[in-house]
Design goal:
Blueprint (H helix, E strand, L loop, with lengths): L1 H11 L5 H18 L4 H12 L3 H8 L7 H12 L4 H21 L4 H8 L2 H6 L8 H12 L9 H11 L3 H20 L1 H10 L4 H20 L21 H16 L8 H21 L4 H20 L5 H4 L1 H13 L7 H5 L10 H29 L5 H10 L7 E4 L5 H7 L3 E3 L4 E3 L13 H14 L5 E6 L10 E9 L9 E8 L1
Parallel strand pairs: 1-4
Antiparallel strand pairs: 2-3, 4-6, 5-6
Helix pairs in contact: 2-6, 2-7, 3-5, 3-22, 6-9, 7-20, 9-10, 9-18, 10-11, 10-13, 11-13, 11-16, 14-15, 15-20, 16-18, 21-22
Length: 514
């Protein structure tokens, strides 16, 4: 009956209604996220929250992750409701649905653009199916854009949003910093806005807003700064790059191209890097000209891209979920531009006649539509692929372990960093050879070291000798076992290789003394 009512009401919606996009997105999103097989980057934070012994222990563990606290505290609340990671997926779906709802109902884009964006790569795949803290970026940026006009009366709402954004991820911090500078620039240079604000705002509103932003930034920076014994620098493979490297510079510029058009060039091929970087620069120039009559949003677009680009070059080249923030900045800049009347201040300052750039907005519209269509194709393709090919072989492996009655066996699992999905789904700890003790989540810090398969078998030998009651061990590896020992009887059980991530294909063995 409920399904019939939903279908009946949905059928009444005109196809050009934003609610049609929202409902279609929500239904497909629910199907996709419940079908999605989670991987280590999704379940490792869940395990950190689940298995940290206290609040102080939780914060200490988070600092090795390179992310602020907001996502982890959200998971803490979810775990108190239901100790099952599926609730994390449903919560993540809710974040993305709210983001798309705000975009469809309040953004200045036309219906076609809203439809293409909503089912694009980042909203429909990267920030929907993969349950990570990056969905917060899209949510808080879009809420910020929705309530942006409230700054004429109070900055408190925007300050809270900027604080939440800053504590969602390192990239959220960069975007939050850029938006904060934009608000500051407008406040300092727009006397009319400043007078209007002071005539309508509460006495302590400005000081309270500044305090919220400063506190939020300090908290975020403190948490994402890695401890001294972290050997991945909070999740990164190396430190700062403080020299000029032309190839790396082109790779960093090409990340803007990847954010817009979803193609990441081969870093070893100079021609690919040069072409992609050139196209990215041309798109940015077109956008700058498009925003030239909106000084405030032009400022934001320049600052945000500069800050994220600097981080990309000097610190971390990033993956799509990271440099996707370039795309969010583009959408946010165009959205915020709708709040302002055209101004010729910048054009006059550079002695540019308005008629000389009359064709550039048309070209920008064509490029924007090209970006949206590419994003749409990428979103549909990756969403559909995830329905057919599991992202990770983790869930299929766990289903077999449970069905075969192996869930309560003593399990040795390696590589530990790739075992978080199994630990999360099974809701139990394994023996990790990398730390030589029972564990669930992985922290890249002192005391943990990578091990070879021969070392794993040596530790299993010690476990069998030290535990009289332990007759055999279930060994789970994420690569095929290619070593053997004469004093062991190793029997392959089953392997699970059907997964998009080659690092999360699992091999099960019984290990017993010969």
């Amino acid at each position: 009956m409920l399904n019939k009512k939903i279908i009946k009401h949905t059928s009444r919606l005109p196809f050009d209604s934003p609610w049609f996009i929202i409902i279609l997105f929500s239904v497909l999103g629910l199907i996709g996220i419940l079908n999605h097989s989670m991987w280590r980057d999704e379940l490792n934070p869940w395990l950190i929250v689940r298995d940290s012994e206290s609040l102080s222990d939780l914060i200490a563990n988070i600092r090795y992750e390179g992310h602020p606290v907001l996502w982890y505290f959200s998971l803490g609340l979810l775990i108190k409701i239901v100790d099952n990671p599926i609730i994390m997926q449903v919560f993540h779906l809710g974040l993305t649905v709210v983001s798309v709802t705000l975009f469809c109902l309040y953004s200045p884009f036309n219906y076609q653009q809203k439809f293409l964006f909503s089912f694009g790569f980042f909203p429909f795949y990267e920030y929907l199916l993969i349950s990570r803290n990056y969905a917060f970026s899209m949510l808080f940026v879009f809420v910020f854009c929705t309530v942006f006009s409230s700054r004429k009366i109070t900055y408190t709402y925007l300050a809270i949003l900027l604080g939440l954004l800053a504590n969602s991820s390192a990239y959220g911090l960069l975007v939050s910093f850029s938006l904060s500078l934009t608000l500051l620039a407008e406040f300092c240079f727009d006397s009319e806005h400043r007078q209007q604000y002071f005539s309508q705002s509460q006495k302590y509103d400005l000081f309270l807003s500044i305090a919220i932003i400063i506190f939020s930034f300090i908290l975020s920076i403190y948490i994402i700064t890695p401890p001294t014994d972290s050997y991945l620098y909070g999740g990164l493979n190396n430190g700062w790059l403080l020299k000029l490297d032309i190839r790396h510079l082109l790779r960093s510029i090409s990340r803007i191209f990847g954010a817009y058009l979803l193609i990441i060039p081969q870093h070893k091929r100079w021609l690919d890097l040069i072409i992609c970087a050139t196209i990215a620069i041309l798109i940015v120039i077109l956008t700058l000209i498009k925003l030239s009559k909106k000084p405030v949003t032009l400022f934001f677009y320049i600052i945000a891209n500069s800050v994220i680009f600097a981080f990309t070059y000097f610190r971390f080249i990033g993956m799509p979920r990271h440099f996707g923030h370039f795309y969010l900045v583009l959408i946010a800049a165009l959205w915020l531009g709708s709040y302002y009347q055209d101004s010729l201040v910048i054009l006059k300052k550079f002695s540019v006649r308005p008629n000389s750039i009359i064709f550039f907005p048309k070209w920008h519209y064509i490029v924007l539509m090209l970006i949206l269509y590419v994003q749409f194709i990428g979103g549909i393709y990756n969403f559909s692929r995830d329905l057919v090919v599991p992202y990770s072989a983790s869930r299929e492996t766990v289903q077999y372990i449970q069905k075969a009655g192996l869930a309560n066996e003593f399990i040795v699992a390696s590589r530990d960093a790739n075992m978080a999905p199994l630990s999360g789904y099974l809701n139990r700890k394994f023996y990790y050879p990398e730390i030589q003790k029972m564990g669930s989540f992985t922290l890249f810090k002192k005391g943990r070291k990578e091990v070879e398969q021969a070392d794993i078998l040596s530790q299993i030998n010690s476990l069998l000798k030290n535990k009289d009651e332990q007759k055999k061990i279930l060994l789970i590896l994420n690569s095929k076992l290619n070593v053997n020992r004469k004093d062991f009887k190793i029997v392959p059980i089953k392997d699970f290789q059907r997964g998009w991530l080659d690092s999360e294909r699992y091999y099960l063995y019984w290990v017993d003394e010969a």
